[in-house]
C-alpha cells in the first residue's frame, strides 16, 4: 500500500483528508486512531509523528504532518484532482488565501467552543461552566458571521467562486464540529446553511460516512437540550 492515512474522524482535518482521498478514488490504507483513548500518545504513533497529532500521511516512507501541507503535497503528487485543488497560480492562490485565514479565523473558534462545551466536560465527567462558555460562544459566532458574510455572502456558490474546492471541504468540516456540542451554525447563518448543503451533496456519500459518529452525537445533544 503506497499511501497510509493516520486519522480519527472526531478530528476536523482528519475528516477533510478522509473525504478528499475517498472522493479522489485514491487507494489508501486506513490507520485509525482513537484520540479519546489516547492512542496518539503511544510509542508506536509517537515514532511516526513526534507532535502526537492527526492527521498524518505516510507515502512510500515519506511521512508528513499538518493537513494543509498534506493537501498541497497530494496535489503536487497528482493524487487529488485539479478541480478540487487547482494548479493554476491565481486559482490556487485563492484557495490558499482561505486556508491561511481559516486556521485563526474559523477553526480556532469552532474548535475551542467544542473543546470547552463538549470535550473537556466529557473527559473529566463534570458539567460545563456557563460563564466560561459564554466568551467562547461569542467569539465563535463572530467568526461564523465573518465567514457567512465576507467569504460566502459574495454571490458565489462556493468560497473561491462557483467551483467547489478543498477550501470548502476544510471549512465544512470545521462548521460541523460545534454540532457535537449542541450548536448548529446552519440554524443562525443562512449563507452557511445553503452552502453546506451544496458541499455535502458534492462530496457524498463520503461526506456523510465521515460524519456519521458526529451526527449521532449531535442528535443526542439536541435531544438533551430540548428536554431542559
Structure, explained:
- By secondary structure, the protein is of the alpha+beta class.
- It has two domains: 3-76, 3-Layer(aba) Sandwich (Glutaredoxin), CATH 3.40.30; 89-227, Glutathione S-transferase Yfyf (Class Pi), Chain A, domain 2 (Up-down Bundle), CATH 1.20.1050.
- Helix content is 58%, strand content 7%.
- The protein has nine helices and four strands.
- The protein has helices spanning 12-23, 43-48, 67-76, 89-124, 130-151, 166-176, 190-203, 206-210, 212-227, and strands at 3-7, 29-32, 56-59, 62-65.
- It has a four-stranded mixed sheet with strand order 2-1-3-4, covered by helices on one side.
- Helix 1 packs across helix 6 (166-176), helix 4 packs antiparallel against helix 5 (130-151) and helix 4 (89-124) packs parallel to helix 6 (166-176).
- The longest helix has 36 residues, at 89-124.
- The radius of gyration is 18 Å and the shape is globular.
- The mean pLDDT is 93.
- Residues 1-82 form the GST N-terminal domain.
- Belongs to the GST superfamily. Theta family.
- It catalyses: RX + glutathione = an S-substituted glutathione + a halide anion + H(+).
Amino acid at each position: 500500500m503506497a499511501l497510509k492515512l493516520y486519522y480519527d474522524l472526531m478530528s476536523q482535518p482528519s475528516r477533510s483528508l478522509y473525504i478528499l482521498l475517498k472522493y479522489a478514488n485514491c487507494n489508501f490504507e486506513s490507520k485509525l486512531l482513537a484520540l479519546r483513548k489516547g492512542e496518539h500518545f503511544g510509542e508506536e504513533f509517537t515514532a511516526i509523528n513526534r507532535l502526537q497529532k492527526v492527521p498524518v500521511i505516510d507515502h512510500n516512507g515519506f511521512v508528513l504532518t499538518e493537513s494543509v501541507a498534506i493537501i498541497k503535497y497530494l496535489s503536487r503528487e497528482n493524487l487529488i484532482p485539479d478541480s478540487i485543488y487547482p494548479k493554476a497560480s491565481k486559482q490556487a492562490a485563492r484557495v490558499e488565501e482561505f486556508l491561511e485565514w481559516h486556521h485563526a479565523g474559523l477553526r480556532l473558534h469552532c474548535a475551542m467552543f467544542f473543546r470547552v462545551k463538549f470535550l473537556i466536560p466529557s473527559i473529566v465527567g463534570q458539567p460545563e461552566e456557563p460563564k466560561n462558555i459564554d466568551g467562547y460562544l461569542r467569539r465563535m459566532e463572530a467568526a461564523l458571521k465573518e465567514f457567512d458574510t465576507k467569504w460566502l455572502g459574495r454571490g458565489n456558490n462556493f468560497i473561491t467562486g462557483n467551483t467547489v474546492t478543498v477550501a470548502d471541504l476544510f471549512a465544512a468540516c470545521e462548521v460541523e464540529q460545534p454540532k457535537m456540542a449542541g450548536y448548529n451554525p446552519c440554524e443562525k447563518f443562512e449563507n452557511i446553511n445553503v452552502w453546506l448543503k451544496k458541499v455535502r451533496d458534492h462530496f457524498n456519500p463520503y461526506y456523510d460516512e465521515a460524519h456519521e459518529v458526529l451526527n449521532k452525537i449531535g442528535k443526542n445533544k439536541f435531544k438533551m437540550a430540548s428536554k431542559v
